[in-house]
């Protein structure tokens, strides 16, 4: 049974990206975990739609509400109070937090504004994706997507999976934060 058969629409491009991530993780002998806000579990859904994903996907946390980013993933409350949830450092803390939470080699996280209204002073389409890996560095990318809410969410899935694949492959992508 596919995700589409149970009412979860999965995007073809995102599924291809998930398959590429799975292959990269297998080749590397690594695992990943997801921390999701605006995507509400779509990254995890795409990763687990790939046959054999249990070898590479450890699990995830959907921390949609701002306070759960602190209580579940360990994002510093003062960071959230000072900048809101849509911030590159929040994404970085989320990625490190989920990696630690489930014992994965890589943690990928997304936080942003899918719309229809701006949030935390950020316009609709602003998304931060981060990957924390075993090298103790966290890569963060800012995306500026346009369009409707659903499209922004799926663009986020594709962008985050691309960032994760690049990190596993050792390719440069985005800021690097210690």
Keywords:
178 residues; Maf protein; 6-stranded mixed beta sheet; PncC family amidohydrolase
Structure description:
By secondary structure, this protein is α/β, with parallel strands linked by helices. The protein has a single domain, classed as CinA-like (Maf protein), CATH 3.90.950. It is built from six helices and six strands; from the N terminus they run αβαβαααβββαβ. It has helices at residues 12-28, 42-48, 66-73, 77-83, 88-102, 149-169; strands at 32-36, 57-62, 106-112, 126-132, 138-144, 175-177. It has a six-stranded mixed β-sheet, sandwiched between helices. Helix 1 packs across helix 2 (42-48). The N and C termini lie far apart (41 Å). Residues 17-166 form the CinA C-terminal domain. It comes from Nocardiopsis terrae. This is PncC family amidohydrolase.
Brief sketch in words of this structure:
With 178 residues, the protein is of the alpha/beta class. 42% of the residues lie in helices and 20% in strands.
């Amino acid at each position: 049974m596919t995700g589409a058969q149970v009412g979860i629409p999965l995007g073809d491009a995102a599924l291809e990206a998930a398959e590429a991530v799975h292959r990269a993780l297998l080749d590397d002998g690594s695992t990943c975990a997801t921390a999701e806000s605006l995507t509400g579990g779509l990254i995890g859904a795409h990763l687990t739609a790939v046959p054999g994903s249990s070898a590479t996907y450890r699990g995830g946390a959907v921390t949609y509400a701002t306070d759960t980013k602190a209580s579940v993933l360990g994002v510093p409350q003062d960071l959230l109070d000072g900048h809101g949830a849509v911030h590159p450092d929040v994404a970085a803390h989320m990625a490190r937090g989920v990696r630690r939470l489930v014992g994965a080699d890589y943690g990928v996280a997304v936080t942003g504004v899918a719309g229809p209204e701006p949030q935390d002073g950020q316009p609709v389409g602003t998304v931060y994706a981060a990957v924390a890996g075993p090298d103790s560095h966290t890569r963060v990318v800012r995306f500026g997507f346009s369009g409707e809410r659903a499209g922004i969410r799926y663009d986020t899935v594709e962008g985050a999976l691309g960032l994760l694949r690049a990190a596993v492959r050792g390719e440069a992508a985005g800021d690097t934060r210690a």
